[in-house]
Design brief:
Its cofactor is Zn(2+). The longest helix has 28 residues, at about 140-165. The protein has one domain: Cytidine Deaminase, domain 2, CATH 3.40.140. It is built from 5 helices and 5 strands. The chain is about 45% helix and about 15% strand. The chain has about 170 residues and is an alpha/beta fold. A 5-stranded mixed β-sheet has the order 2-1-3-4-5. Strand 3 (about 80-85), helix 4 and strand 4 form a beta-alpha-beta unit.
Length: about 170
Amino acid sequence: MSDTEFTHEYWMQHALTLAQRAWDEGEVPVGAVLVQDNRVIGEGWNRPIGRHDPTAHAEIMALRQGGMVLQNYRLLNTTLYVTLEPCIMCAGAMVHSRIGTLVFGARDAKTGAVGSLMNVPAHPGMNHHMQVIEGVLAPSCSALLSDFFRVRRLEKKAQKEASRKD
């Protein structure tokens, strides 16, 4: 492994690739990469539909894999890159896992729990606080989600029109 320091944009681009994988599987396109010492120790993309598991968010999948790699639930000195602001469940899991830094792309006004709807990691009662960096490749992260939901709406409209013809 080289001593090259990869940028936040580099790792977020990797997370975007994973988000595309979620889209390809019919899931909401969110991707996450867990990094320690400049190497990937966990990856995830949204999979709740395919796994029949409401907890199978990209962040949870990456944290689980990181725990297995480190053989520890405490993911100290790690950075989690995620394309969308985490929800309450994922933000809580990040606090419990004690990641060092969260880097996210797009904000989520409806369910974001790192500043939009509420701010779980910054709550003064939390036993662990992490650094938060937001807005990395935000336009690309937002566009992927917007495109996904636009395509989904068009597909549903086409299905309705097709069923009317039957």
